[in-house]
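Troubleshooting log. The previous structure file for this entry was overwritten by mistake, so regenerating from the original sequence record. Sequence copied from the archived sheet and checked twice against the printout by T.R.
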Amino acid sequence: QRFAQGGASLAPKTAVRTLTATSSRQGKVLLCLYDGNEHAKQEPQLLGTTENELGIRKWIEDQGHTLVTTSDKEGENSVFEKELVDAEVIITTPFHPGYLTEERLRKAKNLKLAVTAGIGSDHVDLNVANEINGGITVAEVTGSNVVSVAEHVVMTILTLVRNFVPAHEQIARGEWNVAEVAKNEYDLEGKTVGTVAVGRIGERVLRRLKPFDCKELLYFDYQPLSPEVEKEIGCRRVENLEEMLAQCDVVTINCPLHEKTKGLFNKELISKMKKGSWLVNTARGAIVVKEDVAEALKSGQLRGYGGDVWFPQPAPKDHPLRYATYGPF
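Regenerated output below.
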């Protein structure tokens, strides 16, 4: 696990947080998870659901603590809003985050620990978390899904470049029009692919792309890979983001969300990308400006966008990227 004590990257080794469980007082743990309904019953290993509760209810209660689980997280009358007031620990997931804003954190007078059951703590106002209650410890399970995300990136790239979804939908409608699909169908071989950030996920993406014989594998990151790793993968670092984007047929976003990356892919930056390129975002929804991505698809600046992250999450029904399509054809 990677711990962030407020803005720091690693909690002091001497910092110890305990829940209080006595005959007169129990600690309270609040889980904010998504509803799995019948699917959670069919697959008990869907731990991030309200039904399966990360598999921790028995353990929490055996320690003498109280566990409250909910998916209701929006608004001041939500269960999450009401229950966080006296919670000592709050656990949520990236898929259904309970947003810990300044207002909510200041209500949570007993809160000691905020945990992401996954990667990323951008749903927490870290500056406020560092100020109140003696400093709230913010933790995440670093590396927990890096393989899954890297594989998902490669799948999304192939889905976009091969124009798979329109082909599938055409067949599902009972139609057969090869030209309609083939006009936007390409090979990944010979294409230039670049990743924004080359951490645990970005590096794995590049490794998985190596067998596809891409023209070049590029990356933009303040910290370079070692020369040995670059040679092994066959990738090259580009020091300027705009310079990298101008060369890439495919760009995949694999950086964390923070003040410098929020809204990074806006109209201006997207205009620096190679016309007709594809953009993949499996990092965080707020890294892109959704309206600008939708407009870039409509104009043909982007040929396709593949994202499995949204802001807010879950995405509202009128979110522009639910309906955005490639415009010229």
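The radius of gyration is 22 Å. Archived copy saved in two places this time.
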